[in-house]
Amino acid sequence: MDRELNSNGVSLLDALSRISAIINTLQELDVLLERIMDIAVETVGAERGFVLLYDDSGMRTVQTARNMSDQNIQDLTGISTSVVRQVLQTGETILSYDAQSDERFYDTQSIVVNQIQSVACVPLKIKERPIGVLYLDSINHRKGFVEAVLPFLTTFANQAAIGIENAQLYQKLREENRQLRKEAQRSSGLADIIGQSPKMKQVFDIINSVLDSDATVVIQGESGTGKELVARAIHHQGLRRDKPFVALFCGSLPESLLESELFGHKKGSFTGASCDKKGLFETADSGTFFLDEIGDISTKLQTQLLRVLQEGEIKRVGENHVRKVDVRIIAATNKNLLEKIKDGTFREDLYYRLNVINVFLPPLRERPEDILLLGQHFLMKFAAKCKKNIHGFAAAALDLLPRYPWPGNVRELENTIERAVVLAKGALIGPDDLRLAESNGHWHLPSGMTLEKLARHLVEQTLQETGGNVTHAAARLGVSRRWIQYKQKQWQYARN
Ligand SMILES: Nc1ncnc2c1ncn2[C@@H]1O[C@H](COP(=O)(O)OP(=O)(O)OP(=O)(O)O)[C@@H](O)[C@H]1O
Ligand SMILES: [Mg+2]
To answer: Distance from the CA of 218 to the CA of which of 148, 157, 346, 462 falls in 20 to 30 A?
Structure first.
């Protein structure tokens, strides 16, 4: 077939290479169908033609046509014994050099009345399943409608069908992504907090119910579930929105420093206290104080905190008189405070004072409905930030995201999408861009990995997920901070 020319002198091989080039580049269905029509009409030497496709609901609709009236198309595609119906039913091409004396067309007005001499109607098939037909006919040019052209027509139609299916998938995906984007924008009613799962809806209800009050709130949840985000939302949408929001990570400071941070100190009250200093409770006066990782504070500080909550008073370190403060407290922790009460490291009375309202943020793996929504939200955020023209996720990536267990929760998802946006080459984020080591809840470890290497792999991955926070990584791995630091030193030497 390679050197064969049709009646117009157009090489059939040339037509095939043109169609395979466009199916890889054209993603817009309308444009693709127009091009398919052009190449088909030109190569076979037809004067009229159309492409008909099944749509999602199983209806057959003509997508693109050349030189044909609606009445002609109706006649060829109508329910009765139409050409199109035969081709769709049998999956076989109908080719007729002499249509006027072909009994298959006796009933077909459009062919008889219009004096059509030659007809070709080719099924468009994906894996043997018909998705539509390509119809061509001609009054004057008949040379393109001979048996010898059949293999070309079949190959051409197969190629075209692949292109059409890809374009349809792309359109569907674009629609899905658009839908997700819309949902991401309106899901919570609370600016920036994305979620649509029943569990997050409960969280939104609680948050909305505490906005207009001064009630103390405890936010619990694993690392990366959004505790700080929720704390900020409660402040910024609540009554105190125009007042200060002060946040302190209690886990990182030794007791004496933390005390002076919280309550302030008098000049000379300890070595290094070179001037009077206001504590953060005073800075937060009339606003909100977010005490992050409250589970880590010492029992001495717990007692002082209890007094602030009971009396609304603080005492700077080294001073004897008390100062009044009006502060709304929001505390967060990824520890189980009830267990800490049981083992005597957290005061029960403080717990009940703090825990007026309890917000529990579920781990991401328990609300898979939110994963794609959040993914889309982060995609838009980072695509805009990196000025990259990325529209959404490829189907395989959409499939992978909800199956991954997300041990680092939303933070891990956010980091994953940011990295994927940077890595992505095309308009869609592919599964490889996500770089998810584990795809189905099982570890895929290279054989021959030693226990030591596995430990290192786990520690490094966990540190990545906690944004380098050793305390959080240690908590998650069930080891001490010191163990991680010790191991890191060892590995460092092993490297050098
Ligand atoms: N529902 C959500 N919608 C949008 N972004 C979210 C959501 N939850 C978390 N994030 C984002 O994930 C990241 C981690 O959230 P955040 O810092 O609030 O978690 P955390 O629970 O305080 O974690 P940690 O215990 O490690 O401190 C932040 O960038 C935050 O904006
Ligand atoms: Mg936090």
So the answer is: 462
